[in-house]
Specification:
Elements lengths: L16 H11 L7 E4 L9 E4 L4 E6 L12 H12 L4 E6 L17 H17 L5 E4 L10 H15 L3 E4 L22 E2 L2 H6 L1
Length: 203
Amino acid sequence: MGHIPQGESTAIDILTFDEARARSEREAAYDTEKWMYYPSFYSEYRYVLGTKGRRPLICIGINPSTAEPGRLDNTVKTVERLAAQNGYDSFIMFNVYAQRATKPDDMDKVFNEALHRENMNAFRFILSGAEGQPHIWAAWGTIVEKRPYLKTCLKDMLAIGEEYGALWLKTGKVSKAGHPHHPLYLPNGSVFEPFDIGAYLSK
């Protein structure tokens, strides 16, 4: 069953990223040696879902849906598969905006600055944990057009990526508007190539 937000995320209490990560070490019902999942319980938002390793493929979608450890959706299963096929020892599913919504049309109409701030703290944590140059897969598709604030979020992610010398990647053809391909329906054996996110965001 898909996730339908209970309303605007500004109406709920959220854990900071640091609080969510600390609680996961105390309360997680999954293998914390293998998984990163913050918060560690199903909620209206998700900062991070992935596996632990030295060389992760960091995939960036628009917003999380229902996936959690042991219950991956088709998008995250594709990310896991392509990461392994391309020589990465782990994968991390991250999102431009942290609110869960199976249908992007149900995302916040009003930008939640507090949720975005904590999501960016999570992004810094992920990039800081990668050995060597972080590899970031731009994989949000045309869904980025759903809300004007999503481009603002991406600009912040670009700036953080520059702090850590990140390499941005894509796979598959870009859309007519230049948006990078969403993971769903990518064939086995898809390979990655550099993606100029600076040029993309300047359009």
